[in-house]
Design brief:
By secondary structure, the protein is α+β, with helices and mostly antiparallel strands. It has helices spanning about 10-20, 50-55, 70-85, 135-145, 160-165, 175-180, 180-185, 215-220, 250-265, 275-285, 300-315, 325-330, 335-345, 360-375, 405-420, 445-455, 470-475, and strands at about 25-30, 65-70, 90, 110, 120, 125-130, 150, 185-190, 195-200, 225-235, 235, 240-250, 270-275, 290-295, 320, 345-355, 380-390, 390-400. A hairpin with a 3-residue loop joins strand 8 (about 185-190) and strand 9 (about 195-200). It is globular, with a radius of gyration of 22 Å. Bound molecules: flavin-adenine dinucleotide.
Length: about 475
C-alpha cells in the first residue's frame, strides 16, 4: 500500500502482525457502490450514509484489516500497536450509521467477527457469555432454540455484533419493556493497552457488586477505551403468550398521550407511535398509529393487559386498525430493497435519532418535520417515536433527499439547531462517530471527564483516534 510510507507506525505494526498464525491480514478497498445494500456494504467503510456520496465524488479509501481468531491474538495486536505507535479501529459488523469506525489516517482495522463463539450459558442463572464478534441475531437464534431470548432486537440485528452493540450503546425495539443494551450487560471483558484483558462488572452478582460501575464507561465508548472481547448478557425465557395491537389516533399528540400512560404502566414491551407523515406514507392511514406489544405467562393475564391497552387507546380517541402491525412486523428487518430503490431513483436517505423529555417531544417532532422538509434537495420526511421512558421518548425521522452533499449537511445542521434550541438530545441510539463530531460540545462535562479517562487509559491514543475521542486533545 503506497501510503504506508506516510504511516511508519502502521508499517511496524504490520510487520509484527504478519507473523501471527492466529491473525488473518488483508488489504481492502477502494469500495464500489454500484447499488448500495446494507447487507453487502464494502470494507473498509462502515454504514454511514455519507460514504456512498463521498465515493461518488471520488473518495477511494483503502486499509489493512486484521482478523484475530482468539482473545490472545487481540491482546498481541493491541500491545504491538501501542509499541509501534500505531492505531487500531475496532470493528464488528460495520453497521453503525455515523462513521464511528472511520477508515481514516494510518489505523489498522481490527475486525472482530471471528470471535463469535457462545462461551457459556446458564438457563438457571439467566445469563449467556458470548464473544464480542457474534452477530446479535445468531445469538438470539441460538438462545431461541433453547427456549430463551436476549430481548434485544435492533433493526440491524443480522448485521450488528454484540461488541458493536455495547460500544454504540445500542437500543432494540423492545426497549420499553426489556431495556437497552446497558441494562443487559452483566459483565464485559475488554483489552486495554498496557493492562491486557480486564473483566468489568461481576460474574458473581446480579447487580452492583462492582462499586462505581466502571463497566458503564465502556458501554457507548465507540471503540475508544478498550477492545471488548466478550460479554456476559442477561437472558430471559421466551414469553409464553404475546399479543400485538394497533390503533389509529387523530394525531401525534393523542398518540403520545396514550403512549405516555402505557409507558408509566410498564406493561407494554413494545410501543411504536407513527406520526401521520409515516402512517400515511407507509400504510395509507390517515392519522397517527400506535402499535403495542404485550407479553404474559398466562392467557387470562394477557387478555386483561390487552383490555387495558384498549382502554388507554380509546381514551385518547384511538380505534383499532387491522393489518398495519402485521405489515410492519413482516418488513421490519428488510431495508436493502428500500435502499436499492432510492439509489436507483437518484436519491438517498438518512435517519435521525433524537430524544426529548415528554414536554418537548411533540414540539421536536413537528419542528424537525417542518424544518427538514424546507431544505432544498429534501424530497420527503416522515417520523415515528420508537422508544419510551418514564421521562420521555426518542424520535426517528427518515429523510429522503437528492444525492447532494450540501443537502446532507444542511439537514444535520438543522437537526443540531433544533435540539439545541428546544433542549433535546441529538442522538438516542446511533451514537456520535464522525457525523456528530461538530456537536461533541453538547456533551458538556460528560465529554471532559470521558477525555480524562481516555487520556489515562490510552495515553498513546491507540484506539479509534479519529472517532468519538478525536476532540479530546482540545479538551485537555
Ligand atoms: C439498517 C440499519 C438499522 C439499524 N437499526 C438500529 C437499531 O434499531 N438500534 C440501534 O441501536 N442501532 C441500529 N443501527 C446502527 C448499528 O447497527 C448499531 O450501531 C450497532 O450497534 C453497531 O454494531 P456493529 O457490530 O455493526 O459495530 P460497528 O459498526 O462495527 O462498530 C461500531 C463502533 O463500535 C466499535 N466497536 C465495534 N466492535 C467493538 C468491540 N468488540 N470492542 C470495542 N469497540 C467495538 C467500533 O470501533 C465503532 O466505533 C442500525 C443500522 C442499520 C444499517
Amino acid at each position: 500500500m503506497a501510503r504506508l510510507g506516510g504511516c511508519p507506525g502502521l508499517g511496524r505494526l504490520l510487520e509484527k502482525v504478519r507473523g501471527d498464525p492466529e491473525v488473518e491480514l488483508s488489504e481492502v478497498g477502494p469500495p464500489e457502490f454500484d447499488v448500495p445494500q446494507f447487507s453487502r456494504w464494502p470494507l473498509p467503510l462502515d454504514m454511514w450514509p455519507l460514504w456512498p456520496l463521498l465515493v461518488e465524488k471520488g473518495f477511494r479509501p483503502r486499509a489493512y484489516v486484521a482478523k484475530p481468531r482468539s482473545r490472545g491474538a487481540v491482546e498481541r495486536i493491541v500491545e504491538a500497536a501501542a509499541e509501534a505507535g500505531a492505531c487500531l479501529v475496532p470493528r464488528g459488523g460495520g453497521s453503525n450509521v455515523v462513521g464511528a469506525s472511520p477508515p481514516l489516517g494510518c489505523c489498522l482495522i481490527l475486525d472482530l467477527r471471528m470471535l463469535d463463539k457462545i462461551l457459556w450459558f446458564s438457563g438457571e442463572d439467566l445469563v449467556v457469555h458470548v464473544e464480542a464478534g457474534a452477530v446479535v441475531s445468531k445469538v438470539e437464534e441460538w438462545l431461541n432454540r433453547r427456549g430463551y431470548t436476549l430481548g434485544y432486537h435492533p433493526q440491524s440485528q443480522s448485521l450488528a455484533t454484540v461488541g458493536g452493540s455495547i460500544a454504540m450503546l445500542g437500543s432494540g425495539a423492545l426497549a420499553p419493556g426489556l431495556g437497552n443494551i446497558e441494562d443487559m450487560v452483566l459483565w464485559l471483558e475488554t483489552v486495554i493497552p498496557g493492562l491486557g484483558t480486564v473483566t468489568l462488572g461481576s460474574r458473581n452478582s446480579p447487580r452492583g457488586w462492582e462499586g462505581p460501575g466502571v463497566k458503564h464507561l465502556f458501554i457507548g465508548s465507540e471503540g475508544s477505551l478498550g477492545v471488548v472481547v466478550s460479554a456476559g448478557l442477561r437472558v430471559r425465557p421466551l414469553p409464553e403468550f404475546t399479543g400485538a395491537l394497533a390503533y389509529r389516533l387523530p394525531g401525534f399528540r393523542e398518540g403520545l398521550e396514550a403512549a405516555r400512560r402505557l409507558t408509566l404502566w410498564r406493561g407494554a414491551r413494545l410501543l411504536r407511535l407513527l406520526d401521520p407523515s409515516e402512517a400515511s406514507m407507509l400504510y395509507g392511514v390517515d392519522g397517527a398509529v400506535l402499535m403495542v406489544e404485550v407479553e404474559a405467562p398466562d392467557r387470562g393475564l394477557l387478555e386483561a393487559m390487552e383490555g387495558y391497552v384498549e382502554k388507554v387507546a380509546s381514551a385518547s380517541g384511538g380505534s383499532r386498525v387491522e393489518g398495519v402491525y402485521e405489515k410492519w412486523a413482516r418488513a421490519r428487518y428488510m431495508y436493502d430493497e428500500h435502499v436499492r430503490q432510492l439509489w436507483s431513483a437518484g436519491l438517498w436517505v438518512d435517519t435521525i435519532d433524537t430524544a426529548a423529555p415528554w414536554s418537548r417531544v411533540e414540539d421536536l417532532n413537528r419542528r424537525l418535520l417542518e424544518d427538514l422538509a424546507g431544505i432544498p434537495g429534501v424530497v420527503a420526511v416522515m417520523s415515528h417515536a420508537g422508544h419510551f421512558y418514564s421521562g420521555g421518548a426518542s424520535l426517528y425521522h427518515t429523510v429522503v433527499m437528492e444525492r447532494r452533499l450540501d443537502t446532507y449537511w444542511r439537514v444535520w445542521s438543522r437537526v443540531a439547531e433544533a435540539v439545541r434550541q428546544l433542549g433535546a438530545s441529538i442522538t438516542h441510539q446511533h451514537g456520535w462517530g464522525l457525523l456528530r463530531k461538530p456537536y461533541l460540545g453538547f456533551l458538556g462535562g460528560n465529554y471532559r471527564v470521558f477525555c480524562r479517562v481516555k487520556n489515562t487509559l490510552d495515553p498513546g491514543n491507540v484506539l479509534n483516534p479519529n472517532g468519538i475521542s478525536s476532540r479530546c486533545s482540545r479538551v485537555g
